[in-house]
Recover the amino acids of this structure.
């Protein structure tokens, strides 16, 4: 990426992050979105704080080289939250795409320049890459949820019984246990 | 040129689900992952609760009794007379919003109806319509609405998204307790057979066999026998628990989760080792019971009556065995029931003696009437009097933080005892941030009967605030062990950690005690109760000291 | 959602018009005597009825929220006021709750930000606003006793002196303001009500949960404060004749003196409406807070037994039923039982019938 766009984005970083964050929490109910934006205590508001911290870092990283691993570290907490919330996959990941619009709106005037427009489309394909990465993480999280759900019974009850060598017996005289815990 | 490109939001059309409408007219959408399966009719029938039948919350028809509205109305009326809490809480909320962002389910899910005030308004709206004149006249404008099938489904959905943790009641200027409202709401739902199976079946099991899992007496003994072997393998010492022993000094009751589910099983071994130590050294005489083999009480999540029916076994068994007093294991809602309900419901326990520690002679003045002592009170007292031979260095590989369970915190006030015990058996202890512990503690997200498998999303979102605080101390201090004194926590926190902070494990306090406890005649203790090697302790062990 | 506050606003405006028109039509007797008496009667009867109604409901369990370390072993510091064990500690807890809104204060935390600067979170304004509102209201109420007593008691005088401590006087030959001394309480009341209203409008969470009955009292109190302030500082009324009217009311010799302005009747009408509305609304939190079972009970539930007036016997699963179902299995693992099975005589451990179970349960 050329120096031009990078500097422009860095100059307006705070504004871009803020708009991007606002766009990201729009997926929540309006009063919830306000809470996510307003409450600054990271422990009273883990969703909002994880999101804003993650976005800040992601933008920084996008301005550098596209390093999947580093990006994933910061994308993961945000996606991890959205993967358990009331979202469809597209809703859970769309906030990344919304960065494109945020950039276009914030840098409207500057982007008239043809050179910058080229740089922008290069930058935008990074955003696309990031979005694909988000899908991977999203799927990982969903699989994890199913795995936890499926294994919970096994890990806890069954394993304890198994260790005690009671499994076979249990099935015979206590079918209720298995039934209850599934 | 930039202007000519199609705009991103034109490319992806995403439906935002922001309810722009009034909450009262926003329909409820029962979502997979957020609700628990309906109760099994056999369980409902076994304990003789109303309207036992197969039903499915996702289907249109909930197979309600013909006159369900009448039943709810009458039940509501009755409870307003029976519970001042309910009546006052229906009337005095000013909707100041102080509670709104205090609920872990709201923080995690972002669903506005999980704000405590709105959860209560679900019932209040019907109360206004049915029991106040102003409400009836002004209608929706004043937040009143008649009971309907939609309202009922909304009740069911959101009353089973409350873990009765009472965090909101700490912040309410009038002490309005959403747990109390949820308890009443669930009682009403039970009148027409709308329970969840994760509550109904444990209730039936507990009623019949004495514990939630429906474990019969011989299996219970087999399990504890196995722990005896396991402890021997780890320590080289064979412990000898006593069961249903008449004339023992003390009866011990703990949640059955400790006996049958990891990692509670290690806590259970912890109790056994502690009792053995005391028996050997001081002649401590304590018995387990298979009849009252459940401390937890899912009746509490059904109705006051069901709670009383299940709880009755504790005093009944203490009386039958002729013990002096009762010692209670690590459990959350079990202790809320013991602390605030048991004596009133099933007391007075005049056949028992005021509890005195047979080892230190300490009188447990604070349990004078109920005659039941919390095990961390008991152990803290032992430690204070130097009665335990402890080697905390065996827990040196652990960096421990402590999760205050909701019920023992806000329904009992036991904060310092477990901390005192932990700090005496571990060398590395770190607190989570102040607004997430003690009376401000965040729920595990699975309390009040919600730790089923099918509502995993609800549990993981509800547990996020807790996990987030754990993550913080994990990153800051390298915390790798989360201690708690609640069996539901021990069941619910491991999957929660697995998702949010996989590097952190979960333990009961007495597992830590047992690992530090030196037993007479023990081997060189190179492994802990989980059979994990203890770093730094080189063992030229003779494997096990076979008896 | 706008409907909720619009309706309330319109209602208050209509009330204003009613009082104004009534006075213009010469219904002074109605607005100066009949309505105030009726409203007061409604307030007293309604308030007592509501409180009685609450107290009629039982307190079956002692369920206080424990907000701190309970009283247990002597070396743990007992949080006396967050987890009160005695009646007196409860009194202190309640006093802190009622006089300082302690729970509401929990909302706010002081935080040291980077650089060591102390910063408060936004929520502190709710606490400050609520305190300002209630205390200003109280001060105004006490000051108004001047109109209902003769001679004026010393504490009313005292409150007035404190209240007008910040005397604002601007006296130019052409413009005079601040005579008589400005009462801070009135201004604070007006500002606090405005804040509480704006908060409801602009904080989305609070707007989402607010009902018409949350806005109405705010508008009404705003109206009361505003008319009061107008009377005192702008369109001055004849205080002597106003007092003649109010004294007439308290001495049950009601009169309608000449020269009491329309605005006085509007003020009085608003107050009457507030009184009449009070017992039927959330304003009853004034009485309810004293009866809140999570706050006004002791936490010594394990020390002293609490009696439930309607405690009734319930079906239980007895030990005998339990043993009957599982006896064989219990015997199999060596558990002591109360009743040995009768049919076939017991083989080996017959002595362990019931009273003397084996010392250690040697299984198998």
């Amino acid at each position: 990426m050329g120096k031009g766009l990078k500097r422009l984005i860095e100059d307006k970083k705070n504004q871009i992050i803020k708009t991007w964050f606002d766009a990201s929490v729009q997926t929540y109910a309006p009063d919830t979105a306000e809470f996510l934006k307003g409450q600054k205590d990271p422990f009273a508001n883990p969703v909002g704080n994880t999101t804003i911290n993650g976005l800040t870092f992601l933008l920084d990283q996008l301005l550098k080289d596209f390093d999947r691993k580093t990006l994933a570290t910061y994308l993961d907490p945000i996606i991890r939250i959205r993967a358990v919330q009331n979202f469809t996959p597209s809703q859970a990941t769309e906030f990344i795409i919304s960065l494109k619009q945020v950039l276009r709106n914030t840098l409207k005037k500057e982007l008239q320049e043809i050179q910058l427009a080229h740089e922008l489309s290069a930058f935008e394909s990074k955003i696309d890459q990031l979005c694909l990465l988000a899908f991977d993480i999203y799927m990982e999280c969903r699989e994890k949820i199913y795995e936890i759900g499926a294994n919970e019974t096994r890990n806890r009850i069954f394993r304890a019984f198994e260790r005690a060598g009671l499994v076979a017996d249990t099935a015979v005289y206590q079918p209720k246990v298995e039934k209850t815990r599934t | 040129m930039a202007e000519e490109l199609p705009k991103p939001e034109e490319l992806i059309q995403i439906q935002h689900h922001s309810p722009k409408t009034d909450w009262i007219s926003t329909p409820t959408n029962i979502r997979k992952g957020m609700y628990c399966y309906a109760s099994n009719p056999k369980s409902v029938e076994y304990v003789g609760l109303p309207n036992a039948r197969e039903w499915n919350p996702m289907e249109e028809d909930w197979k309600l009794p013909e006159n369900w509205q009448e039943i709810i109305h009458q039940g509501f009326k009755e409870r307003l007379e029976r519970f001042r809490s309910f009546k006052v809480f229906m009337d005095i909320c000013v909707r100041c919003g102080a509670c709104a962002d205090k609920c872990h389910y709201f923080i995690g899910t972002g669903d506005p109806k999980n704000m405590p005030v709105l959860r209560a308004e679900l019932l209040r709206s019907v109360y206004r319509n049915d029991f106040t004149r102003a409400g009836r006249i002004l209608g929706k404008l004043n937040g009143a609405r008649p009971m309907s099938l939609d309202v009922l489904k909304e009740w069911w959905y959101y009353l089973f998204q409350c873990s009765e943790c009472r965090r909101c009641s700490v912040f309410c200027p009038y002490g309005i307790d959403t747990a109390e409202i949820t308890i009443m709401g669930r009682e009403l739902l039970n009148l027409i057979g709308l329970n969840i199976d994760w509550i109904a079946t444990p209730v039936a099991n507990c009623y019949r066999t004495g514990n939630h899992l429906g474990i019969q007496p011989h299996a219970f003994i087999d399990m504890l026998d196995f722990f005896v072997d396991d402890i021997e393998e780890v320590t080289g010492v064979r412990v000898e628990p006593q069961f249903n022993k008449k004339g023992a000094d003390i009866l011990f009751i703990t949640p059955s989760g400790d006996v049958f589910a990891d990692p509670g099983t290690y806590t259970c071994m912890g109790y056994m080792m502690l009792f053995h130590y005391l028996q050997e050294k001081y002649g401590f005489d304590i018995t387990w019971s298979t009849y009252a083999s459940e401390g937890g009480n899912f009746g509490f999540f059904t109705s006051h009556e069901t709670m009383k029916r299940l709880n009755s076994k504790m005093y009944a068994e203490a009386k039958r065995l002729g013990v002096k007093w009762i010692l209670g294991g690590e459990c959350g809602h079990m202790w809320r029931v013991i602390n605030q309900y048991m004596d009133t419901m099933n007391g007075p326990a005049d056949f028992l003696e005021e509890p005195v520690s047979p080892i230190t002679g300490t009188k447990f003045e604070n349990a004078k009437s109920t005659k039941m002592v919390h095990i961390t009170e008991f152990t803290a007292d032992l430690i204070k009097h130097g009665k335990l031979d402890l080697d905390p260095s065996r827990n040196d590989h652990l960096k421990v933080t402590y999760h205050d369970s909701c019920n023992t915190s806000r329904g009992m006030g036991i904060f310092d005892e477990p901390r005192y015990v932990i700090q005496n058996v571990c060398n590395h202890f770190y607190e989570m941030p102040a607004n997430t512990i003690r009376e401000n503690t965040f729920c595990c997200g699975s309390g009040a009967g919600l730790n089923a498998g099918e509502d995993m999303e609800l549990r993981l979102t509800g547990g996020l605030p807790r996990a987030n605080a754990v993550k913080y101390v994990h990153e800051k201090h390298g915390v790798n062990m989360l201690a708690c004194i609640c069996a539901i926590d021990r069941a619910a926190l491991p999957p929660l950690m697995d998702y949010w902070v996989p590097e952190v494990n979960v333990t009961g306090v007495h597992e830590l005690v047992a690992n530090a406890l030196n037993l007479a005649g023990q081997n060189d203790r190179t492994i802990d109760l989980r059979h994990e090697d203890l770093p730094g302790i080189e063992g030229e062990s003779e494997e096990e000291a076979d008896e | 959602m706008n409907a909720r506050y619009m309706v309330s606003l319109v209602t208050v405006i209509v009330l204003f018009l009613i009082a104004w028109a009534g006075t213009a039509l010469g219904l002074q007797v109605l607005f100066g005597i009949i309505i105030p008496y009726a409203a007061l009667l409604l307030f007293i009867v309604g308030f007592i009825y509501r409180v009685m109604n609450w107290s009629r409901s039982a307190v079956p369990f002692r369920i206080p929220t424990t907000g701190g370390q309970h009283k247990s072993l002597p070396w743990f510091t007992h949080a006396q006021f967050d987890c009160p064990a005695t009646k007196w500690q409860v009194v202190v807890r309640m006093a802190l709750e009622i006089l300082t809104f302690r729970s509401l204060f929990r909302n706010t935390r002081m935080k040291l930000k980077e650089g060591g600067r102390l910063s408060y979170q936004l929520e502190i304004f709710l606490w400050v606003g609520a305190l300002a509102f209630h205390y200003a209201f109280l001060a105004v109420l006490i000051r108004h006793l001047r109109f209902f007593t003769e001679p004026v008691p010393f504490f009313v005088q005292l409150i007035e002196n404190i209240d007008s401590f910040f005397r604002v006087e601007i006296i130019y030959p052409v413009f005079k303001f601040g005579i008589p001394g400005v009462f801070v309480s009135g201004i604070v009341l007006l500002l606090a009500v405005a804040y509480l209203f704006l908060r409801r409008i602009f904080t989305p969470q609070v707007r989402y949960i607010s009902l018409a009955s949350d806005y109405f009292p705010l508008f009404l109190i705003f109206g009361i404060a505003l008319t009061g302030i107008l009377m005192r500082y702008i369109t001055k009324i004849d205080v002597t004749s106003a007092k003649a009217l109010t004294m007439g009311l308290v001495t049950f010799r009601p009169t309608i003196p000449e020269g009491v302005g329309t605005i006085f009747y509007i003020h009085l009408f608003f107050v009457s409406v507030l009184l009449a509305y009070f017992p039927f609304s959330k304003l009853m939190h004034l009485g309810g807070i004293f009866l809140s079972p999570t706050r006004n009970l002791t936490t010594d539930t394990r020390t002293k037994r609490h009696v439930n007036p309607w405690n009734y016997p319930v079906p239980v699963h007895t030990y005998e039923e339990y043993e009957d179902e599982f006896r064989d299995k219990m015997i199999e693992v060596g558990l002591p039982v109360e009743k040995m099975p009768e049919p076939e005589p017991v083989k080996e451990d017959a002595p362990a019938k019931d009273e003397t179970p084996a010392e250690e349960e040697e299984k198998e």
